[in-house]
């Protein structure tokens, strides 16, 4: 039986109806509308065919919602980029976007006009790292539980160290090496490795800005933190929420070995399943 289009106006109502998202679900998931907006706007801005079949300009005022509630800098830059593209004007470069790679005629490989560097985090980097954390939290739901602010989540006085990825003068990624995780995580890793807890180091707070993913930045950050652990005579481990499948795929593709899964409390009676990974043998201290 054909569905009747709901009353009401606006692209969210129309798009929700078109792809069959229940109204109750859309209302209960406030992030859903924002993700639909971002996805639809990106397609509309990059495809003339889509532009011809929909009123893309109607999407523009909705960016005000994201600008006010989420990441003002990111919303403003995306809004400006989309409006330029729809108007046929030169597109401004987003501050976290990588330069398109060029072909190297000598080697046949792809090379980038900008070089990503990994360096120790400084106090001047924290604001940029918080902005990336906000974008990652909105997009991926990481961290799943945040008892304090994102700034406190990133900056720990007990960390062995923290590093950032920098591309063209912009911070685009972050990772830290911590002394501890939850008792369940440390216990499982300690048993699997046959090493005491004080010989472990936890790779944590791995973040890559959404606009520069799939460029090897996460791998580079992961490698730097794991090597630092080995340099200190420690075994690198990490824990990841089981439902974060993209992160799980990254760790396993980098040679990390799953030791098992633990249940960790989140507070207020909630729990989360986390996989515990052991660093690759090449990154472990003897």
Write the layout of secondary structure elements.
Elements: H1 11-18, H2 23-28, H3 30-46, H4 48-53, H5 63-69, H6 72-86, E1 102-103, E2 110-111, E3 116-120, H7 126-140, H8 150-154, E4 161-167, E5 170-178, H9 183-193, E6 200-208, H10 217-231, E7 235-241, H11 245-253, E8 257-267, E9 270-278
Helix pairs in contact: 3-6, 5-6
Based on the model shown, name its key terms.
globular; 286 residues; disordered N terminus; alpha+beta; two-stranded antiparallel ribbon
Verbal overview:
The chain is of the alpha+beta class and 286 residues long. The protein has 11 helices and 9 strands. It has helices spanning 11-18, 23-28, 30-46, 48-53, 63-69, 72-86, 126-140, 150-154, 183-193, 217-231, 245-253, and strands at 102-103, 110-111, 116-120, 161-167, 170-178, 200-208, 235-241, 257-267, 270-278. The longest helix has 17 residues, at 30-46.
In short:
The protein has 286 residues and is of the alpha+beta class. The protein has helices at 11-18, 23-28, 30-46, 48-53, 63-69, 72-86, 126-140, 150-154, 183-193, 217-231, 245-253, and strands at residues 102-103, 110-111, 116-120, 161-167, 170-178, 200-208, 235-241, 257-267, 270-278.
């Amino acid at each position: 039986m054909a569905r009747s289009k709901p009353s009401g106006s606006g692209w969210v109502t129309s798009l929700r109806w078109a792809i069959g998202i229940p109204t109750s679900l859309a209302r209960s998931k406030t992030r859903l509308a924002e993700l639909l907006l971002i996805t639809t706007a990106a397609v509309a801005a990059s495809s003339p065919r889509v532009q011809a079949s929909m009123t893309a300009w109607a999407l523009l005022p909705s960016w005000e919602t994201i600008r006010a509630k989420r990441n003002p800098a990111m919303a403003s830059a995306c809004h400006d980029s989309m409006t330029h593209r729809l108007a046929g004007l030169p597109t401004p470069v987003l501050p976290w976007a990588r330069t398109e790679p060029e072909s190297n005629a000598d080697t046949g490989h792809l090379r980038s006009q900008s070089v990503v560097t990994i360096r120790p985090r400084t106090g001047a980097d924290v604001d940029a790292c918080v902005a990336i954390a906000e974008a990652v939290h909105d997009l991926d739901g990481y961290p799943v539980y945040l008892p304090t602010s994102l700034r406190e989540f990133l900056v720990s006085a007990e960390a062995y160290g923290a590093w950032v990825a920098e591309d063209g003068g912009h911070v685009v990624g972050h990772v830290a090496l911590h002394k501890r995780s939850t008792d369940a995580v440390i216990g499982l890793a300690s048993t699997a490795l046959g090493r005491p807890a004080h010989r472990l180091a936890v790779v944590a707070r791995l973040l890559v800005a959404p606009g520069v993913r799939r460029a090897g930045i996460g791998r580079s950050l992961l490698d730097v933190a794991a090597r630092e652990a080995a340099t200190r005579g420690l075994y690198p481990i990490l824990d990841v929420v089981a439902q974060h499948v993209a992160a799980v795929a990254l760790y396993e593709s980098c040679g990390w070995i799953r030791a098992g899964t633990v249940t960790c409390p989140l507070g207020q009676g909630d729990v989360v399943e986390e996989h515990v990974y052991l660093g690759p043998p090449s990154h472990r201290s003897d």
